[in-house]
Amino acid sequence: MAPGSAARGSRGSAGLGWGEPESGRAGAVSRRSGGSQGFRGRRPERAAALPGPRAWQQPFLNVFRHFKVDEWKRSTKEGDVAVVTDKTLRRSVYRIRGSVSAGSYIQLPRTGTQSLGLTGRYLYVLFRPLPSKHFVIHLDVSTEDSQVIRMSFSSLFKEFKSTATWLQFPFVFEARTSGRDLAGVAPPGARWTFLQLDLQDILLLYLNRSYSHLKSVRLCASLLVRNLYTSDLCFDPAVTVTGAQRAKLPVTPVPREMAFPVPKGESWYNRYIHVRFPRDSMEVPPGLVQKSCSSSEAVPPGPVPRLLPCLVAVSKPTQDSVSPTVQTPSPTAVSGQAPEAPRPLPEVSLSCKCSEISSVRSREPSAQMESANVDMAPDSVHIFAHESAVVPVALEDTGSREHFLPDPILRLKGVIGFGGHSTKWALWTKDGAAVVYPCHAAVVVLHVDSGEQRVLLGHTDKVSALALDGGSLLLASAQARPPCVVRLWDFQTGACLSLLRSPMHAVSALSFSDSGALLCGVGKDCHGRTVVVAWGTGPAGLGDKVAVLAKVRTDFDVQAFRVASFDGTRMASCGQGSVRLWRLRGGVLRSCAVDLGEHRALQFTDLAFQQAQDGCQESSARMLYVCSRSGHVLEIDPQRRAVRHARCLLPTQTSSGPQPQKQTLGSGPGIAISSLSMSPALCAVGSEDGYLRLWPLDFSSVLLEAEHEGPVSSVCVSPNGFRVLSATSTGYLGFLDVASREYSVLARAHTAPVLAFSTERSRGQLATVSQDRTVRVWDLVTLRQLYDFTSPSEAPCAITFHPTRPAFFCGFSSGAVRAFSLEAAEVLVEHTCPRGAITGLAVTPDGNLLFSSCSQGSLAQYSCAGPQCRVRRVAADVVCPDAHPSLSTLAVSGDSRLLAFVGPSKCTVTVMDPASLDELLRVDVSTPDLDSAMAVCFGPTSLGHLLVSMSSGRVVVLDAMSGRTVRELCGVHPVACPSLALSEDARLLLTAAGRTVTVWDYSAQRSPGSQVYIGHSEPVQAVAFTPDQQQVLSVGDAIFLWDIVATSESDRSLSSAPPACEAGPGPRQLEDAASGASGLPRPQVPVPWQAPPPRPGVHAGPLEGGDGALSMSDDEGPCEKSHSPEGLRQAPGPPVLEEEAGAAGDGVWGAAGGSRELAMPASPRGCPSMRSTRKGAAQPSAHLGSYEHFPASHTTPAKSVSSPAASSAHLRLKAVLGYSGSGRANMVWRPDTGFFAYTCGRLVVVEDLHSGAQQHWLGHPEEISTLALSHDAQVLVSASGRGRAAAHCQIRVWDVSGGLCQHLLSHHDAAVQALAFSPDDRLLVTLGDCGDGTLALWSTATYDLVCSTRLLEPVHGVAFNPWDADQLACLGQGAVSFWLLQQHEADISLQVHRELVPEAVGAGELTSLCYGPLPLLYCGSSSGQVCVWDARAGRCFLAWEADDGEIGVLLCSGSRLISGSGARRLRLWAVGTVPELRLRSARSGSVFMEHELSLDGGVVSASFDDSMDMGVVGTTAGTLWYVSWAEGASTRLVSGHRSKVNEVVFSPSESHCATCGEDGSVRVWSLASLELVIQFQVLNQSCLCLAWSPPSCGRPEQQRLAAGYGDGTLRLFSVSRTALELKMRPHPSALTAVAFSTDGQTVLSGDKDGLVAVSRPCTGMTFRVLSDHRGAPISTIQVTRKEYGDLGVQGTDLWLAASGDRRVSVWASDWRWNHCELLDWLSFPMTAALETQGHLLPALAAFCPWDRLLLVHVGLGVHKEVIVYSLRQKQVVERISLPFFAISLSLSPGAHLMAIGFAECMLRLVDCALGTAQDFAGHGDAVHLCRFTPSARLLFTVAHNEILVWEVASHWAADHSVGCSGPHQAPRQRFGPEAGLSMASCQDRMAGTGQDSV
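Request: output the structure for the sequence above.
Response:
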């Protein structure tokens, strides 16, 4: 039903309220049919029936308007299709997006049997491709012989294809150097495109058919489309009607409604793209090219030999240099601007002799490229982009490049403010983790624990009402002033779903039904009558229109309105003297009054429905509570429509005495209650006396109260009832924690507009002054208020911080200037100027002088160098008296040498000497139109610019010394700009005018680009940069803090952004994934992240390792797709649930781009520093600055591990999960042989990529650092670090065919960081790190050391010359060393030639190298530069910036180069022209980036085939990726945790296992394939414990994971639904253990303080806390089923808890009846030592699986042993000696096996029946975790982040499977090796050694 179609409804007999019906009449909305069916009249059904051109289609036809696309009756849509506003076109467009193009589209006509019947020759499509996405356009055209031909245009197509009925044209965006790989995703700066298709010529040229008409159009994802037009005229989009008439051009100008907006003074081609296809159909007169196009758009004449069927979008390279040249199109070249030629250095300088040079700059910041001409050569239909071309430049000119602004360059980080129109709206989200409140025109979502904000912008006026549905999925907000607009938001994504044009003049209240299907709004119409409107919001989530269900006008006053949570058709309202019950039935909204009796005269203010307790209360029995301004609270029975109870709440203070009294009910003066909120157990009341009070439901006495500084305007109880939110009319927002009785302030705000502000550099503080007569100081990091100064008698006007001392100066309306101390919070000194109010304050940057100006024109100078501020001079009548108080009233230059202001008149600007106040310069800026100056601002000292804002909106740039006009920025604002600021690097200019903030590209000399930002509801008073130049502040109605996305040329990580929102797998797909439905050994895995992660939010994003899969979280961040020139196809991948926890100080999201891991700073000269991922890691070898190099473990392995023979071993290593991302070049792959090997800790893993089978080569005593494979692939060499006991590190030589170690080499004192074979495999070179400093050569015939040399400086890489086996190169600190091997008989000597890197390169340390075609050597640097050397001449002749992170990997083959960086990027470069640049006569050539891929970590290893089309890449995140550039796809091969794994658990069916780690992730793996299936990610927190729910009624969909985190939170995840089901916080400290009860309905959790909490997941409530273990962390909680009669106590569960002080408690419980009984308490003696090998020793306990009445315990005791305790006999019955203290324990549920892990990197398997033990090595760290699978077939062991999967021998499990049927056989079991040992003999044995006290 369309809005506004109101009609009078019929009266029915149903009840109007909730009881009997009430007579009366109410307005309703009638329904009517939705228009005509199908297409009418003019639409022919068959092509043969079409006559000639229709008159109604001339001269052009607006297709969308004619067929009324917005009504979706004659057209159809599918998938994600929405109407959005495009900021470039400034109008509404259709957005079509989706992960699959065919799944989202707009189609005209609605069905395939209909026809559009459009006969126009040309079809004009006005569209813009979505960045990093593909799009498809299908056209069905009919020929004159009634044949239907489909034409498809798509960026998915790689080549042109044609059949008799189908033409496929590829649409290409980027440059190419060859004829391959034309297809690709749209670049980030994709522009609006004017696509002009000549349908007649396309059919004639490619199929030789005659065109009749256009039958249908389908526009598929992903693109924005403005409209479609057809015409027989050929329009020129760059020429308007006015322009054509003025210039008298012989062209057909584009109609006004088809035209794209072009700002004044700009070229159309600088902002948009014109695609004409086919090209030869466009007969452009020669004169037109000269008149309407730039030189870059010229089209050479000539015949058309043939048409190349491909469309290519034009744009310019993102990194263009000084003068881009223009290439003349040719049959093999494309038109457009080519990148600048790389220039050999330093002899050659660039000289452009082409006359067709264009220097036009882009105005739109989002377009990071310039448009070249789209008019193509006759033999080419390419519109070429050069998007990925990177321009190598001469080293002496590296600073001359210019970069355009990112779009957007500002991102709103947070808002300081609350309310605006009203402070009564503050709401909790469903999970109680966040608060939603208005801040003037913005809606803020504040996460309570972390303090992070998410701001929703879109309203143009103050928000007057808010509503959130019960599931926190939909948010509604209304703005105050007419026209009244209600916005409907997707709360999880922050997207605006719909704009509801309300029939109300002003909306005062909104309320959702619990399901979100109904939204009710209350307000006033233009006549002042109350209007109630009901909208059906259910279709909003599906993209459909929101319809008005009912509307009614009434004369009753409505102050509050609520929809009942238990019934979406029932509502209640209250107001002056009335309480009414409403009901929506049959499209009619009716109401009935409640009989108030004697209370009918009360003024009611708020109401709330009673909340049900545990769902046991009938909805019809719920009471309605209403509060009044007189202090009464009425309890109303909705069934009877009568008052059940009436209570008057008395104030706290009584007249009998000054002390507060217990609050009771009586007849005294009541409290004016403004708001109330209900929970199942209490009622929260906010009153105008400033108190928040909590009452029981019988209102007998106050349970809790909190006093505020002003009247409480709103209260809201959180859904779980633990917290109560309160807001005051004075701008305070906070909450009361009921359990802890603590009050926390969430937000404070000025209650009037902010006038001025100042920032402090060292402490990160902000000071503001406001019309509310307060001065406030804020923390810029937390946005919390620090100080509050109030001045009731005078208003503060201006403020500034002292640059060096903790003090600030404030000017007042009385003329006083006061200095305030932040340390003492007091006034230091006061000076009064008697002439007028202070209008400006400024202090010199050196802190010596302070200046103030007043409204009477006086300028005062103060000396503020000392502790006391003194007046030095006062100059009268020098400042313009009409100056408005502003930050820009006075300006001081950065060197403290100049002072500028407007004055003495408004038409002059004066510059003075700050010290003497001598006038240096006076500039008259007046114009004939009486323009006047408004504000001044100095630029950087090096520029010497003084910027003056004029009343006409211009900004005049003056030379501060001479006063001459340097430049003018016209059209900055249509109104005066009262504030402006220029960044310290002179790159960005901020201006404020009206309610907008504008950012200008000040560095652009002509037509600077600008971006306009909205959000303020009142005029912006001031803007400025923060002292660190990383953020922007704007103040007005509120304080807005904006992040600058990229602040310098070096910060270009902006191009990496979170992936675009894509549809994840459906529920069935997730279920299949979770159940291991796929039997493939290596399922396809999506591509890694195209960017660093987003801010926390509900968005579709990849795994931490980077999978483009489903992602969900508590809040929303920006959701974008990163730049990728070609883009890689994303395969289906494991879903991931991602959430950011509230840990402070993490710093992960601080940097632009939001990198998830903290990159290390560049290492200093010498031996670079590094960071270890493991505790106690020693400082290892020299390493790349931005990589985490491999750590040397401090864990000493066992000296002798006697591993059993393979035939007798009961464990066989089956698989390893993980890859050592801390190594370097520690992965090898040969595509010709298929050999694939990598390292994981101390293991070399050789894996078959087809079957997934692994071989494991053991032997290294420390973690392996690097690998090398011989060229014949017969020998593999591995090197590891040096252990504590060893004198040298170890190098092992392996035979690839047999997998045996043939040689053991030892020479280097520290770790080996690089290995390389000579081209003939005759020699092996090994390079030690900076701790060793040795280069060694080995003969591969005998593997004897033939030569060794000590290096004089740290070296980071070595490589043999592939063309000469006697040459090798090393690189390090600013130099390249070329080594020559000279052999004299058996002796080999080394000669070195060292060449310094030219200073102009500025490359820092060289970090990677590889040889290219003879004689090229490529070197990568720590700053992202790639240098090219002539290895023969020993000179560097070329360099370019290949990345903004450290280059760690370089590979070259032929004309292709691959670079991998610490910034997570892998790039493929076309370097075919580089050899030409080596010749000094060369003057042309380019380096192009063909592909780019952003990974999940820094690239540390890579191996590709000879063509560089496919390869394997390893990252610091512990992931190995298979990358195929040719296929455009990538696959995850190996993945694992990047940090310590804390727990491994298994599903009851043993189909899956789950792991959790310090990185905050919970990962679910398939046990069949050991592949990652699902990942749940919580950012900024560690997941410390994990439990898998037991089988519940045999329903797998109820399987859940309980995870405990370091912040004390417990989260329950649904495995099958891949969703977060519950988040609760049962502990104040970190959780260390968690377990489910046997029925899965209760969760037991323990924390590091020794508390055990018992919670119910169904309610989220903790109903019992056990503090028996207080003081020591809980290390183990285990639950098992208790058989009836066991131990003679009641209960269904038997469970234990063990703490770090070796205390174990055993309990019997039945949680259904809240029964819990302590059975036994064990306290074992312990020693003083707490650590072994640097690892804390836990106290572990477990029930024996084969006898549940036996308890097994290990810990830090007197002896190294395992203790077995009998719960039946209450004594120790067995002790098993151990070689070391155990740190992990697991008992097999099948055979009598016990797995024990030690800190000495050893695993022991004990047969408890036979008394035998076997030891196993292979772990790279302490074995801190052991877990048997439920079937006892597998054993998982964990050492740090390495997961080893062992297969238990089948005969071992079978031999001991008898007698393990259940606990009822426990008395007959024997635990120890003596099978016939009696209980008496056990006691005798213990007596001989001493009985422990238990």
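The first helix runs from residue 63 to 66.
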